[in-house]
Every structure is written in structure tokens, then in C-alpha cells.
Amino acid sequence: MDWNTIFITTVEASIGWQTVAYALAAIGINIQFGYAGLLNFGQAAFLGVAAYGLAVTVSTFHLSFWLGIAIGLVATVILAFLLGIPTLRLRADYLAIVTIAAAEIVRLVFRSVAFKDVFGGSDGRQNFSGDFFAINPYSPGTYGIGPISFDERTTWVLTVGWILIALSCALVYLLMKSPWGRVMKAIREDEDAVRSLGKNVFSYKMQALVLGGVIGCLGGFIFALSQASVQPDLFGTEFTFYAYTIVILGGAARVFSPVVGAAIFWVLLVFIGNTLDEAARAGAFGSWVTVSQVGSVRFMLVGLGLMLLLIFRPQGIFGDKREIALDAR
Amino acid sequence: MHADTTVTSKKAAAVAAFAGLDSEPGVAKPDPILVIEKVVRRFGGLTAVDVDHVEVQRGSITALIGPNGAGKTTFFNQLTGFDTADEGSWSFNGKQLKGVPAHRVARSGMVRTFQLTKALSKLTVMENMRLGAQNQRGENFFRALIPGSWRGQEDEITERAEELLERFKLAAKRDDFAGSLSGGQRKLLEMARALMVGPELVMLDEPMAGVNPALTQSLLGHVKDLREQGMTVLFVEHDMDMVRDISDWVIVMAQGTVIAEGPPDTIMSDNRVIDAYLGAHHDAPMSVEEAEEQLQEAEAELEAEIEEKA
What we know:
A: mainly alpha; ABC transporter involved in vitamin B12 uptake, BtuC; two-stranded antiparallel ribbon; 15 helices; B: alpha/beta; Rossmann fold; four-stranded antiparallel β-sheet; ATP binding (chain B)
């Protein structure tokens, strides 16, 4: 067993581009679900719309990179309004149903044959990240400490990504300490009570949906740029569910929980995956688990770990046990 | 609000306003704060509310009573914008409120509480109170990001909230989660929070439901206190002792309509009210012969039973 490689890949995963993209998506979900109580099961669509907004603008229409970013952001806001206006007046479950369906519609439109000229079908779009890497301040080479290192492109993506995470966390921190955040948390507890105190609940829920979507869409940009390509199937519903797992793992309604949750989630996934892979190659499981089956077993073990976490620490890593206890009353 | 008025004068003024009024449904009041005209709410074929005309006198405590299913809470929901009325109109301080969403109704000075208390469990008692304050600068998304723009106002709000908590004897619970309070304390908190809005008309939906008797007196005191501070109170209640004790005027609803109005000491003996609560064909007191007959029947039954066993 090559423990050295396992160790390096695991440490790299804790700050890698996947952690960044998922953390941003999870910060968005934390605002919507953790603070405002909105069950948005379509976060993948927000990332997808942003990533495609950028990719299509640059690679299909040959417009500038920054215009692509702007179009991605605007598309995300429009999506939030489209989903929010009909559903936010209704009960919470309807938003969950509508968003999960909308996310699939968005994904299927992206991969549809009819729009292949624009979105590129199931192959997606490439060749849109040139301008981004053109302003890369890192000269070619590897950057890092000892064996844990990234090439200059990845380092640039990670730098931008972690700055975006830091800014998003600062934004969430400021907002949630303010009276604005108080209204959000109150809406999560009981909308009617908040309405009876003269607050426009619909407007606040819309603000949460838009803000969560926009922060999530930054994750979409990072996702697209780190791969230098977009494919529709990257934005399936499992993406949203991983992001929810991350929020719950860290503890809902805590500023840093999505970031730490994302790091732990990817560390677990990579560590278990690589360890199993190495073990299977070394024949540790005999004929029980072959190398090709390791991928599935990895998710079973991660699922088991998350179940144990929810049983023994239901409030997540940063959560407050007293709050969970209140629900039991 | 007049600081110089004493406890008795407010009560006396409210009672005087009602002096000589007819006990007819829809009777006009000298200075109504809330005027309701032909409000109808149907659920499919069921007409839950069909109120022809009702006025609520300013500065009084008005009780809304009626048997279960009379439509009291539905009527409350219509007035406060939590449900839409099918027909009719109502005005608060002369302002039409039909079709106005609930949060605007609250902003205009008509604040309600709920039958099932809605304390916001995972917020502390203090946060619950602060939430009630209106026109908060920090509740705007962009200004929320600059703490300096709302800190001063927040301090004022906190001070006001502390005074209210002191009055409602919740000051010691200031930093506890609202979810950890007892049922009665939650009722107190909900009432105190409603006062943070600065209402003119306070609508209480069953303020005494589920409150332990030891707290009842203190809650009653607080409701009376609202009138002393110049507010108008309209409340739904089942507890007749409470209605008699604190209300200046009683409106009786049955099957969606207002069937009678009047002062609390005479309304209970009104035939329409007795009929509504007990049914029009309720038992009249038994005559001597009927009593005899029942006694004999019962004895015969008993004897038959004894024989069977033997």
C-alpha cells in the first residue's frame, strides 16, 4: 500500500478545487436552508446556469470573459426569480419540488440535441477559460509545501476560489449578525409570526434565494474554470445532495460550517476511495471487492460515516446541541 | 396616550362609551376604531363567516365569544390579512384593509397574536422582542452590511425591549431560547413582542388557552394594562370568567354570524346567547312529575339488574 500517495492526495483534496466549488454551493444552501429555511433542491441548476452562462458567452458567441461572468450572474438571478415568484408564497415543500424539477429541466436543456449548437449537447463547452488564465500572476511551475503542490493553473483557480469563499463567509457573517439575519432566522422558525410583526416575508425569502443562488453560482464559475470545460451531467441532482450533506455535516446555520464540511466531505471521499483502491490492487479483499467495484463501495462507506455522524452528532460539527433539543419538545 | 389618566378613568371612560347602547348585533359605537361591513368567507359550500356589520370601540376591551366552530378565528384571520375574505370590507382608523397583506396590516397598527403560540423557538427571548420593532434600518440588505448604520437604533430597540420584558416579568429569561419557556411564558412573550410593534389595536386569539391558572391573573392584568396605555383590545376567549372580568363589551358569534352584542354582565343571560351555546331546544328545568317518572324508571332498572344477578 502506497500510504504516501494516499496522504498527499487526501491533503490536496482538503483545499482542492472540488472543495472550493462545493463549499461555495454549500454556503449558498446554508443561507437558504440553514438560515431562511428554504428547501432549495436545485442548487446544481444555479451553478449550471452560471457555468454555462460563462462558457456559452465566450466559446459560442466569442464575447469577452468578463461579459461571460456578468451574464452568468444575471442568469442566476433570473433563475432565482423564476423559481421564487410562483413558489415562495406557498408552503416550503412546494419550493423543494419545483426546484428539483427545474434543476433537471435546466440540465436536460443543456444536453438536448436541439440546442447542440449553443450548449454543445452532452459534450458541453470548452475553450472559454483562456482570458482567465491569461491574467494568471503565477509563472509556470509548481507551488506548495513539500510533496503537496499544485501547478500554476490550479494554484490560480484555488487562489481566486478561496478569496471568494473568504468574501462569502464575511458577507454571511455580517448579514447574520444584523437585524436582516434575525428576520431570516425568524422566518425559518415561523413565517406567520414574522408576518404578524409587519415584515414582508416574501421579499426576505426572495432575497435569501437570490443571495444563496449568487454565492452558489461563484462555485459554478470555479467548477467550470478549474476543468476548463462544462458538461451538463456535472450539474445533476446528486451535486445538490452532496452540497446538502456538506451543510448538515458542518452544522446548519453556522458561518464556517459549509467550508469545513466541504473539506471533510472531500477528504473522506478521497481518503476512503484511494485507500480502498490501493487495498483492492494489493488483493486485500480477495475476490470480494475488485478494483472496478471500489467506486461504489467508497460511497457506501461515506454514507455509513454520515449516518453515524447524524446519530451521534445530529447538530453537525459546529451546531449547538441545545437547538436540536428544542425540536424534541 | 395620556400619562395623567388613572386606572379607573380609562375603565370608566370605556364603560361610559357603551352606556345606553342597544344589545343588537351591529350597533353603532360612538368612536369606532374598526368598522366591519358584510364580511363573508366560504370554504366550498360551508360559509364560515358571514358578518353583517360590527364596530369596535376605540380604547375598550372587546371580547369575541361563541361556541366552537362559530368562525371566530377565521374572522380574526380575515381582519388581519392572514386569509382573504370572499366579500365585504373593513376599515381600521378609516383606512380600508380589504386585500391588504398581513405585514401591512401589522404596520398600520393592528397586531395579532395566535391561538397556538408562535414563539420563535431558536431565537432568544431578546431576539424575539427585537424582531417586533418597526422601521429597522438593519433589516435592509445593504444597510445590514454596515453595522454602524443600525447599531444606534438597535440599542434603542433593546432598551425598549428590556422595559417591556421587565413589565412582563421575563427579564430573567432575556438570553434563553424562546423554545425553553413554559406555555404561559410564551403567551407573555408573544404579547410583549406584539407590543414592540407599537400597535393601536391588539388582537389576542385565545390569550388564556393552555395557561396555568397561576399565570392567568398576571396575564389578565397585562391585558387590562393595554387599555390603560391607550390601546384597544379585541380578543377571542372561551373562559367566561375572564370575559366577565376584563371586557367592556362582548360580541357573540355563532355559525359565522354575529348574533348578539352587549355589556358582559347582561350578555350571558341573553336568550340568543344561551340558545347559541346550548341549542334552541335545550332542556328546560324538569317538572316534579318528570323527576318522579325518571326516578321510578331508574329504580325499576336497578331492581331488574339485581334479580338477574340473583
